[in-house]
Write a structure and sequence with these properties.
With 483 residues, the chain is of the alpha/beta class. Helices cover 53% and strands 7% of the residues.
Length: 483
Amino acid sequence: MGNADIAVIGLAVMGENLVLNLAGKGFTVAVYNRTTQRVDDFVDGRARGETVIGCRSLAELVAALAKPRRVLMMVKAGAPVDALIEQLLPLLEAGDIIMDGGNSHYRDTMRRTAQVEDKGLRYLGVGISGGEEGALTGPSIMPGGTGSAWPEVRDLLRRAAARTEEGEPCCDWLGDNGAGHFVKMVHNGIEYGDMQLIGETYQLMKQGLGMDNQEMHAVFAEWNTGELDSYLIEITRDILAYRDADGQSVLDLIEDRAGQKGTGRWTAVAALEYGQPLTLIGEAVFARCLSALKDERVAAARMLPGPDAGFNGDRAEFIGDLRHTLYAAKIISYAQGFSLLRAASHEYGWQLDLGNVALLWRAGCIIRSVFLTRIKDAYQNQPQLANLVLDPFFATALHDAQGAWRRVSCAAIELGIALPAITAALSYYDGYRCARSPANLLQAQRDYFGAHTYERLDRPRGEFFHTDWTGHGGSTTAGSYGG
């Protein structure tokens, strides 16, 4: 039996940096990669002098570990994870722990947890956010799975994680089976929303106000000192100022077709499954899909005219409105994401502490921001808070911002500039605060063409009625066909 504290399988960028992070925190790390030359290059290169043991087979890797063995897989999500688990199971013993640190779908993690537990071992789905830099210096870590495994890995993961300014580690237990990967998925969905909101703001500045990159850089630099202070605002500031060796703005040379790895889409699908209106995040996903239709958009730009209008207001005032708009829409994005977390927690009995989730994202991860402290406070003050927008702080912030939010949305429509996420957020706000929605007409339509029945305001909830709207429809309802 060896003495390594943990094994890491997969030495791509995230894997390598996590290994160096763990070794730097005093742990001995055994490493393996399917292409063994990468192991040699890493041990003789970046990991030279570190407490890292290079292994040329899985059997050698397992033999290098102290018990209970802790194996962290950092491989591509999907079939490679399943294949690796099948290879590891015969080599491990009861009580050993397999961890998946990739972006796996939470349902796959549920299935794998049951599979590994059935063999007497333990399994964790570990969401990790922070990119290359975070993996090296301290990411946000979101573990879930076999509960008995948490005490065995708590110290290791929490020491590797980022820490808030107050010294709190951005890593804590989230719940059974797929809880960790579900929370990571929603994190990525919110990330999609944040990035889209910033992109729409950039487009309004560039196309609507005619601002150049240096002017926009100055605005984002100022915004990063206030309520919008965040990693994504910070890197947007830096991107706008960056020039290559020839003095050209690299941003202006990048093709406007966005890629995606699927986690935002998974979030939108989960929202549909659990009946949660994640309209902003859904629009962020669709905006990436629309961006991919580059050739069609170029052709449409020639054929489909927009309004012949230009901005003629006070530019400084409008930039102030943009700041308030971005902040308000960001609140909605997080409110929708946390509502999905709440629904899934109820569905699976995870008992997620939503304030704690906000704390996990305060440092290390891509959506880290000062804003998350307010979310933590909101859920600590009201653990059963139904929606983030009902917290007094956020309700006041939305009320104060809505004038600017509406002015910006109207201006964009007049200028012909698409703001799918910003306007979706405003529509959600108006829809959520609407005490009497048009769904009564929708229910009447459903009853008219399909006898789907409806409830009445003047009768108790749970009683259903059908109207013979045409006079010859009869009394049979759709509910009668299910027996």
